[in-house]
Amino acid sequence: MPIARLRPKTRASIFRLGRRRRRGWTTKVASTVMLLAVPRDGELRPPRKIRFATGPRARLSIRSRGQHVPFFEDLYHKVLAMPWWRFFAYTTAGWVGTNIVFAILYSMEAGCVANAVGFEDAFYFSVQTLATIGYGAMAPATRYGHIVVVFEALVGTLGVALIVGVTFAKFARPTARVLFSEKIVCSVRDGVPHLVFRLANWRANMVVEGQLRVIILLRETTREGETIRVPRELPLVRDRTALFAFPWVPMHRIDEQSPFWGGPSALEKLREQGAEIYLAFTGLDETIGQPIHARHMYRLDDIIWNARHVDVLTIEPDGGRTIDFSSFHDVEVLGDHSAIPWIGS
Prior knowledge:
This protein is α+β, with helices and mostly antiparallel strands. Helix content is 25%, strand content 29%. The protein has six helices and 20 strands. The strands form six sheets. It has a five-stranded antiparallel sheet, with no helix packed on it. Strands 10, 11, 12, 14 and 15 form a five-stranded antiparallel sheet that branches. The longest helix is centred in the middle third of the chain and has 30 residues, at 143-172. It is elongated and about 90 Å long.
C-alpha cells in the first residue's frame, strides 16, 4: 500500500514529522508544516530508531558585539562549556608545545643532559621529565640542566593537577537527557482547546520533583516607541510531576486569558510580535542526587492544530511499561483545524 499523499478527511492518519522529503511524498498541514503521512492500517511502517541529540533548539543563539573578553578571563567556565574534542585538542596542543619549549631550553646548552644528542633526544627527555617517567638513560648533567628540570617538574605537577581536575569536573557535571517532541499539538480536552507538549526521560532512571515552565517571548512597543522583549509565562494544567520516568504531556489551557485565544487574529498578532515558546525543565536526578535542567524552543510553525501525539506507552500484561521511542515525534491529525472551538468561533 503506498504512502498517502493527501490529507485524509474521514479517517485519522498518523503523520510522521520530518525535515527531509522521503520517497518524494510530502503533504502540507496547518501552514508550512511539512509532514509525511503514514496510514494506520495496511502495511506496517518500517521500524526506525531515534537518537538523543542536543540541537539548536536547546541552545540560545546569542551573538555579542563590542565585547572584549581576554582569552584567560573566566577560563574555567570556557573549558567546562567547550566540547570534549576541543578540550582534548587544546590539551594535546599545550602538552606538545610545552615539551617543545623545554626541548629548546635543553638544546641551548650542549651536554646539559647526559646521553642526549640533538633536539630529538632533548624532546624525549622533556617528555620523560614532564610525565615523571624517568627511564634513567638520560639525566641532567649540569647545573643549568638541573634548573630547567626543576622548572619543568613544577610545570608538569601543576599541569597534571589542573588537567585531571578539569577533566573530572567536565565528566562529573550533571546533565539532563530530556527528549522534547519536535512539534506541539493543539487538541480539545473536555470541550476546551489545549496546547499539548510532550517530553520524556531519555535515561532509564527516575527524576523526582520534575517541574516545567513554559514562557512565550513577545516583542512589544511601548507608548514611547521603545521596542522591548516581554516574557509571558503560560500556565499549565499540571506543571509538576513527582516521578518523571514515563513520557509527560503538560497542557496549557487556551481560554480568554491565553495569548492564543481569539482565532486567526490572535495567531497573526503573535506572528507580528515574533512570538517564541521556551520550555525549561528542572528536576532531581535520583541516580546522581543532583539537580538537572533542560530547555527547548518552539516557533509558531511548530504547532499542529486539531491533532494529538501518538501514544508511545504500552502497559504489558505483567504490569511492566514499554516506551516506543520510534513514534515519539509522530502526531495524529484528528480533523480540520477549523473544528477547534476557538478557531471556528
